[in-house]
Protein: Trehalose 6-phosphate synthase
Amino acid sequence: MAGKLIVISNRIPSEAAPSGGLVFALHETLRKTGGIWIGSHPDIADKPSETLSEYGEQGEYSRFSFTLSQSDYEEFYLGFSNSVLWPVCHRRGDLVELNRGFEEGYARVNARLARQVVKVAGPDDMIWVHDYHFFPLASELRKLGYTGKIGFFLHIPFPALGDMGALPRAANLPHWLADYDLVGLQTRADVARCLEMFRAESDAEFMMDGTVKCGSRTVAVRSFPIGIDVETFVKAAQERTEQDKLADDMAGDLVIGVDRLDYSKGLPNRFRAFGRYLETRDERERRVSMVQIAPPSREEVAAYRELRYELEELVGRVNGEHGEIDWTPLRYIHRNLDRGLLARLYRRARVGIVTPFADGMNLVAKEYIAAQDPENPGVLVLSHMAGAAEDLTDALLVNPYDIEDMSEALKTALAMPLDERKRRYASCMKKVRETDVSNWSRKYVQALKSCPATLPVRSAP
Ligand code: GDG
Structure:
């Protein structure tokens, strides 16, 4: 590559060797190519600077951060990103909170970030922007005359045209996206929704090579299904520590769920389905317990707080109705657990349950598969609405709105014979390996590199 790679994401790890899927993959990519990683500083500043600052340990590549003020945090991060774009992309228009301040904050932070980025980016560099916090960043960079290649990757679902109606008029997704050279999405279904959006634009033309021409700009829209760092996870799941004796002591079979506490993840219906399963099971069968790890997330947003109360009530109800003196069927942990322990819990669990209403990919589904013992694997029960269902077609696919369907799938999974479990595991594991996160970043960077250069501005002045 002639120039350097510049990665921009909301979060940036401060440590020299970060662990964990996406962060690890971006770190490895940058280590190989050299370049810059830019992300927001965790501290709030009174007056955000116009220039980036060095952040954390500098190694084979540079790390820079930008700071947010309190109003940036409230309007750009909690507001427009997480109370407008997140619900719209996850089909929850009812949870959208519109507020002119949110729009202004989003525009202000993106415009300032573009001014900061052009100070470190040259025309031969490639900029790779991550996620919904930065949809308009390419437009802002183009306004400043930046002519280099800019790619975007959306980690969450691309919204349906109908759901975009809940966005304020200032949110001009087609024009924001046309200023990128490559728009990467998780699944083929996301690509179809994105193209449908462009089809509704009067100035968009569809080219023979699959790209979309908008004014003088040409943008490619392709899917790049993300995955996990498979080998590290396989190893972590096999390790044993003193602490794990606890997991072995848990009587009966285990069903595991691991999700940030987010309304897109379908947790209340999952708990109801487990309650329904307990109601219908034969008392003489082995006891089955569900462990749900749900670390806190975005608690400053009202919808997240309300979900927490709803879950606490449901856990109480399920345990009250079905628990015994010596058995708590539903164990709910509202804390962040160690990653190694998670991997080992996945391996111990007969069933992994992942039931979002909408999810860009869902890495937990892939982690559960990677953690299994190939000789005696557990079964993944997976919502057909998670992006991962496009890859993992041999999981037990369920409808997350259908409590009975999920409860029956739990029963099927728990009773599944070994040969069928092995067959389904082998098929899913093949996909998990194919989409390993290092392949994902390599393929994306390669595709961005091969995009032909087009004019930097959308339309002639
Ligand atoms: C977004 C998209 C897309 C969870 N609890 C703990 C913990 N986790 C880890 C999991 C997994 C990660 O967090 C969650 O990743 P997901 O993919 O499931 O979901 P989002 O956070 O919503 O991520 C999603 C992803 O971006 C990547 O593109 O797949 O669709 O929404 O790795 O294991 N990790 C630790 N303790 C916990 O308690 N250590």
About this structure: The chain has a mean pLDDT of 92. The two ends are 32 Å apart (CA to CA).
